[in-house]
Amino acid sequence: METKEEVLRIIDVLNDTYESEEAWYGPSVVEALRDVTPKMAEVRLSANTHSIAEIVYHMTTWRIFVVRKIQGDAEFDIKTKDKDWKTIPIVDEFEWEAIQMELSLSQEELISELEKIESDAFLEEFVPGRDYSYYTMIHGIIQHDVYHAGQIGLIKKAVKGMRLVEEDFGGFDDRSEFDKDTDYY
């Protein structure tokens, strides 16, 4: 009798990484995204970095890749920069909701595909069109989530810090309040 104990453990780890409030390493993906606003999601910290919205899009893209490979699709690939790292310059409420919903749906689809696996032996098979096993690929998507959840957390902190500066020192740009009773010049 074949077992799928390892597949079930992997599903648990994927779910913990994605949405647990007690992930060992820190905030899960859902926790990292919890209070991100559309404005926060579109901010780039510098010209050569990605926004939170772009990171979430990228995470979804690679989840879809894993799902398609589990389904046996040897032809599916992510070959263009726009498919991997789509530029999202402006994020409104609707688009931010859609980006997060696509990530959530890709998680559900990934778990659903893994639940269909009948034996741990599947994990040792090679991914169609690749030179690595399903085991390696699935653990790779877990590591990918942890990495990007950390990025999201850092970007959030930086953006919140920027907002504090803007709120606390916004008057310096305007000078209207400072010019009334002072001689700074």
UniProtKB/TrEMBL annotation:
<dbReference type="Pfam" id="PF12867">
    <property type="entry name" value="DinB_2"/>
</dbReference>
<dbReference type="InterPro" id="IPR034660">
    <property type="entry name" value="DinB/YfiT-like"/>
</dbReference>
<dbReference type="InterPro" id="IPR024775">
    <property type="entry name" value="DinB-like"/>
</dbReference>
<protein>
    <submittedName>
        <fullName>DinB family protein</fullName>
    </submittedName>
</protein>
<feature type="domain" description="DinB-like">
    <location>
        <begin position="31"/>
        <end position="152"/>
    </location>
</feature>
